[in-house]
Design goal:
The protein is an all-alpha fold. The protein has one domain: MetI-like (MetI-like fold). The protein is 75% helix and 0% strand. The chain has 10 helices and no strands.
Length: 237
């Protein structure tokens, strides 16, 4: 087999900026921006719906259960297609807008991983046990104060491995949005492969390494945080 590793440095700018070398961002930069936005938003959404599901109030709990169970039982690719085809019908102003693919991909990933994160939060809160909640309430604290100052800080320590695992899945699953036309890293790799035609092994191995690096870094950070929190050391990042 003849190797063509030179296609990577020759197309480095193309990898970084996707199909718009002199225009809007794409490629690896778009993948990183999308990953960060999805991680931040799904974390917030997960905390909200996780607390709703943890609540004893049925008016909070049942809507959260419906959303979480329905989304978690649906493939992420199907959620991407739903947002891509249904959002313009639900929000007509989006029809014909530029970068609509980016918007629908972002909404789909946030909705999907928000549900995953909500279940992580719910499990982390329940790992503490309801006894502490009842004891704190009997001491005169409000329910919000109990969750904020007693249950949530303890629960977050238990959630770290699952939270980081969810973040890693977010980075990897951004590669699926190429199917609706988003010019992220995977789509850029396909475009470069279609241009050079003779180096698919090198290109897709390079893509695998690029995805592996941030995922591995997050995994190592998770281990470091777990060790520090287990030792009771203040974490500084």
């Amino acid at each position: 087999m003849q190797w063509h590793w030179d296609v990577i440095p020759r197309n480095f700018k193309y990898f970084m900026l996707g199909q718009y070398p002199d225009g809007p961002m794409g490629g690896l930069l778009l993948t990183m921006v999308m990953s960060v936005l999805v991680i931040l938003m799904c974390f917030v959404l997960g905390i909200v719906f996780g607390l709703m599901r943890y609540s004893k109030n049925k008016y909070w709990r049942f809507p959260a259960i419906g959303y979480i169970e329905f989304i978690r039982g649906t493939p992420v690719l199907m959620v991407i297609f739903w947002c891509y085809f249904m959002l313009p019908k639900l929000i007509p102003v989006l029809q014909g807008r530029t970068r609509f693919e980016w918007t629908s991909a972002l909404v789909a990933l946030v909705a999907f991983y928000g549900a995953q994160m909500a279940e992580v939060v719910r499990a982390g809160l329940e790992s503490i046990g309801r006894g502490q909640t009842e004891a704190a309430l009997s001491s005169g604290l409000t329910y919000v104060q109990v969750i904020r100052y007693i249950i949530m800080p303890q629960g977050l320590k238990n959630m770290i491995p699952a939270i980081v695992g969810t973040f890693i899945s977010v980075i990897k699953d951004t590669s699926l949005v190429y199917i609706i036309g988003v010019a992220e890293f995977t789509r850029t790799v396909f475009q470069v492969n279609n241009r050079v035609l003779n180096a698919p092994m090198e290109l897709f191995l390079f893509a695998a390494v690029v995805y592996f690096v941030p995922c591995y870094m997050l995994s190592k950070l998770s281990i470091r945080l777990e060790k520090r929190l287990a030792a009771g050391v203040k974490v500084e990042i």
